[in-house]
Design brief:
The protein has about 350 residues and is an alpha/beta fold. The chain has helices spanning about 10-25, 30-45, 50-70, 95-110, 120-130, 165-170, 185-200, 215-230, 250-260, 285-290, 310-315, 330-345; strands at about 80-85, 110-115, 135-140, 155-160, 175-180, 205-210, 245, 265-270, 270-275, 295-305, 320-325.
Length: about 350
């Protein structure tokens, strides 16, 4: 633990001893080192003479995260999908009907639906999932958004002051995302998903841009992305390939669920990428993958692998078959195509899988 340069070693030792004593008195043993780090950082803010406003922001953000973690904790083992969309969409709008139908289909297949707990698309999604399969993360605003009455009066709602803490919880635990047309907030959420994926700050998950039947909102977004971002080199060609754009609820739901048919998870170890699967590919299938995805690889081949040393140390999915490769780090769109190909292999399980969390 370290404070600013003005903190002398004697003071640091005193602080450490005080933290250890407090943890002993409270009886904290679980993840003690991390709890101690939180206390140390809080004391450091005081030693830094941090302004009142900055302290209020820090305290409120941590308090909000604690409340949200407690809300989500009982459902940690349930797969979740987050649905984004406009708070201004009316209930009779076909977009609301799309959100409600997609949410209902996913809930019937064992998924929980996370929304921003407001009106419009968020309310439609909560209605579709039902109260037992919904979680809401609302934002306190001076106008426009109020928690949907479908979830506001139960124990499935947390209210946030800050957008950044709210967005953390809307993204943190979900294994799939459906974005419907919306305004600045929806576009902000959509671009953040794409940014997290592009930069590797988020593991691959299915992202669906769902429109009304015959709608062109997301097709316009696609044209803008390709004509103004991809064409000028601001993003890598194919970056948008990780996203499914559709006006079909069935296709949207299938994209979420089938993403996890064979693919389970991944892990990086230095330059190596390990993909964990539900079913081991055959030799012929691996050979075909090497031909089809040669452009994904920085060097070497796609090969079978036993669990790597860090995986063994962490007991991380040791029972699953693995493929290992050294990919180009910016080829995220190509990685998505590989995952989809793995899910379509003849050796892949034929049954649909509710992913393990």
């Amino acid at each position: 633990m370290a404070h600013n340069a003005s903190t002398d070693p004697i003071q640091e030792t005193t602080i450490q001893q005080a933290i250890d004593t407090l943890l002993d008195e409270v009886g904290i043993t679980w993840q003690r080192k991390l709890v101690a780090s939180l206390l140390d950082t809080s004391l450091g803010l005081g030693l830094d003479n941090t302004t009142r406003l900055d302290l209020k922001i820090s305290a409120a953000a941590l308090e909000e995260m604690r409340s949200a973690f407690r809300l989500f904790a009982p459902f940690r083992d349930s797969p979740k999908v987050t649905i984004f969309g406009s708070a201004r969409t009316q209930s009779h709008d076909p977009l609301s009907q799309q959100a409600e139908a997609a949410s209902r289909d996913l809930a019937e297949q064992g998924w929980m639906v996370v929304t921003g707990a407001g009106p419009g698309i968020m309310e439609a999604a909560a209605i579709g999932a039902g109260p037992e399969q919904s979680l809401g993360v609302s934002i306190r605003l001076p106008f426009e958004e109020r928690p949907s009455h479908h979830i506001a009066h139960n124990d499935r709602l947390v209210s946030m002051k800050y957008f950044f803490t709210r967005k953390l919880m809307l993204v943190k635990e979900s294994l799939g995302f459906i974005c419907l047309p919306g305004g600045f907030g929806t576009m902000d959420e959509t671009y953040e998903l794409l940014t997290l994926q592009q930069t590797g700050k988020m593991v691959p998950v299915p992202i669906v841009l769902l429109d009304r039947e015959g709608g062109n909102f997301w097709r316009g977004f696609e044209r803008f992305t390709k004509e103004h971002l991809e064409a000028t080199g601001m993003i890598t060609a194919g970056d948008l390939d990780r996203v499914l754009i559709t006006d079909s609820v069935d296709e949207a739901v299938r994209e979420i669920t089938e993403f996890w048919r064979n693919y389970d998870s991944l892990r990086w170890h230095r330059e190596k990428l390990v993909l964990r699967l539900r079913s081991a590919p055959t030799d012929a299938e691996i050979e075909d993958l090497n031909v089809r995805f040669a452009g994904l690889l920085e060097s070497g081949r796609i090969e079978r692998s036993d669990p790597l040393t860090p995986e063994i140390k962490d007991e991380d999915r040791l029972d699953l078959p693995r493929l290992v490769m050294v990919p180009h780090h910016r080829a995220s769109g190509e990685l998505y195509r590989l995952i989809r190909a793995l899910n379509k292999l003849p050796s892949a399980p034929s049954d649909m899988c509710v992913p393990a969390v």
